[in-house]
Amino acid sequence: MVSSKKVAVIGGGAAGFFAAINGKSNFPDYDITILEKSNKLLAKVKISGGGRCNVANATFGAAELSKNYPRGGKQLKKAFNHFATKETIEWFEGKDVALKTESDNRMFPTTDDSATIMDSLLNTARALGVQIIKHAGVASITPLTTGFNLELTDKKEFFDYVIVASGGSPNMRGFDWLRDLGHEIIPPVPSLFTFNMPDEEVTELSGVSVPMAQVKVQGTKLKYSGPLLITHWGMSGPAVLKTSAWGARDLHIRNYNFDIQVNWMGEITEETFRTSLSATLAGNHKRQVKNQNPFNLPNRLWDYFLTKVNVQPDKIWAEVTKKELNRLVNILLNDTYEVSGKTTFKEEFVTAGGVALSNVDFNTMQSRQCPGLYFAGEVLDIDGITGGFNFQAAWTTGFLAGQLKN
User: Fold this and answer.
1) Global pTM?
2) Which residue ranges make up each domain of the chain?
3) Does the domain spanning 6-189+348-401 belong to CATH 3.30.830.10?
4) pLDDT digits (tens, 9 = 90+) for 28-52
5) Which residues pair with residue 224 across a beta bridge?
């Protein structure tokens, strides 16, 4: 029989619960306790995907999956060989939670309710005998010859193993307790944010979206495509969020003041676009410009473009001059906007930064600086683009940490 050990899991989020559940499944005799500093459990799970919980992404294979992480992809590729999308689906289905895949590969519970995922994790943890303590902040960790002393809010307590799944922090101070153990901390900066455009009239089109646009940050190599949404503060949607994630550090250095170039037609080139435009307009030269809307752009957006390039909407296409057509083509393919500031995406706080990945063995998630201490989730310098990838990193690292392997 395996002798009983005490395990502390610091953090009651997705990674913490998954680590605790897997730890208890692997070592039923171990005393495993989740220590959550707030009064809320699985807070991000609750709000993810607009309250539906974007559990994972239907991207299979370690190599393909790892390409969706601006930071940590190389290390996660190794970890995904142990636990990835297929295993995530099987795990939840084993708990009677059916998942569905939407057209953009995002995966949700078929109930479209994040409570389904929360209840699954909570009920599984409780059924296994995992202890859950709220309002249990950890001020410091003191390594001993064997095990650790944790300084909690109201006492000190000994644990044989510690799994840190405390999530990201907006500033370096939030990592002081881990730096004190000898870990290198990569300064945290925001990732996954939307672009503020306080001086741009395009915000008057709030709610308008296009299914495929390309966003490029001028003066950089950052260029990503996807759906784009105009909001009352600027622009959002996957095209913007991908750009913010991959450019997190560069855009932070620029203090979130930069210009973007938008190709509203996606990744199409000007030559191909002009050919398509000519074909679209063939036989429609007598129709009014406002009524012959190329490529099915939202009407409000099309009217906005016509006004912006000073083309009279009542003019028929046959009367549109070459200069007017060139201006129209240019705005559709090379529209520019000034970004000044950012907004957190749907309250989903994600950071680039945290415990340096070189400090962790990604076969086990054990600290290289502090044997017996493991990491899982966003406390590490890992972040993914939008679409379920951050949760997949949480499930994967939580699974490995729960093995408690040396």
Assistant:
1) 0.91
2) 6-189+348-401, 193-346
3) no
4) 999 999 999 999 999 999 998 889 9
5) 215
